[in-house]
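Running this now, will post back.
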Amino acid sequence: MQRTDKQSLQALEQFARVDAGSIEEWRQRWPDFFPADFSKRGVRQVPPGVSMIAQPQFPVIPLWKGWRDVLLQAWREAFPLTEVIRLTVGPVSEEIDLLSSVTEHPYQQALLLMAKDPWRARFCSKCGKPFVALKANAKFCGPECFAQSRLNTKQRWWAKHGPEWRRNRSQRKKRGRAA
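Update: finished.
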């Protein structure tokens, strides 16, 4: 995997985790990830199961927030093609005059990489946050969650086997002194 692909996937992973308190920090770190006007636009997000025929009025929310929600849904479903197309084309749809005028953005590359390798879309076994798996056996979003999980495993083992292990060790030491 190329370095730029890893960076795009890292930006996508971090975008999947943003909230209102961290979006500005994310934007500063990845200023060119989305089209320039992406953060200034709003969208009416229709809840699942609500018909658009009646055209109910829903409040306008920031486009990044709606897009993050759609991204998380696609993440949960291992990036089905319909969601990938929706995520890839939607944010640039206002830029489309002619087909040749569409510019490619890093987030589109990252989405297509996730669609190509949907096994990379994981949720951390410890904290539940989404992350991009760089290896097939990855279960944790980072070293902190891995370390905490490993500690928990060791503590469970000790709670189950510790007294017996200590007893056996004590008996071995007594036998060693008697000899």
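Residues 126 and 145 are 6 Å apart (CA to CA). More later if anyone needs it.
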